[in-house]
Amino acid sequence: MKLIIFDLDQTLVDFISVHDEATQELFSRFFGVDAKLTEIDFAGRSLADNFLELAKLKGISEAEVSKNSRVLVESYEMIFGQKLNKEASDHVLPGVRKLLEGLSKTDNFVVLYTGDSAGIVDRVLKTTGLGKYFRFAVYGTEAPTRVGMVRLAVGRAESITGKKFSDKDVIIIGDSLRDVNSGKQLGAMTIAVATGFHSPEKLLASKPDYLFKNLKSYRKVLQAIAESGKGLT
Ligand SMILES: [Mg+2]
Questions:
Q1: What percent of the residues of the chain are helix, what percent strand, and what percent coil, each to the nearest 5?
Q2: Alpha carbon of 126 to ligand 1 centroid (Å)
């Protein structure tokens, strides 16, 4: 049994246009400025980090954002929910359902980790029907760093299964440099997928174990997972 940790945004789903609109509305409402998420390097970061970074770009003080951080996340969840269609399966990236379906037939323990808050993730999983594939999710609101989120995921998976997951028993699949880097810090196997805002060249430079253009190559991804850490466990 291996622990597979998936990133959500731009690895499995693409809701960037919705995130962009929601951010624009939030910043207009709270700070009276025009601001879009895609103006900053948002990939693989938490909502709170992205709000801070975008505010900085717009000349809004950190204190102003920090004192409103809770209400900002709550308002964001509400705005995002209003903009989301009830049925959002067309936001699921190619190959994703087949990959998750394939994994559901193995004994692997499959979880999510994402910079989004719980309210956003619930809505995304409900409207795409992907929720059934994951044992749990670790949210950006639970740990200050990406690697901290991975550690939480490993700890939680170990307490549920009673099994130790170390080194290449842990597999991180994500679209950002931050996914690759956090996996490498823990000695995990890293699978990068170039369906996000970090280019294939950039991702390659971070030296993931595998780089795929997209998850249409789901058979190869399943094979890579099956071969990870062979002979070590
Ligand atoms: Mg991502």
A1: 55, 10, 35
A2: 18
CATH homologous superfamily of 3-14+90-227: HAD superfamily/HAD-like (3.40.50.1000)
The model's pLDDT over 201-232, given as tens digits with 9 standing for 90+, comes to: 999 999 999 999 999 999 999 999 999 877 44
Task: Return residue ranges of the chain for CATH 3.40.50.1000.
Answer: 3-14+90-227
Whole-angstrom distance, CA of residue 23 vs CA of residue 127: 20
pLDDT digits (tens, 9 = 90+) for 81-135: 999 877 788 999 999 999 999 999 999 999 999 999 999 999 999 999 999 999 9
CA 11 to ligand 1 centroid distance, Å: 6
Tell me the whole-structure pTM to 2 decimals.
0.92
Return residues with CB closer than 5 A to ligand 1 (ion): 7, 9-10, 175
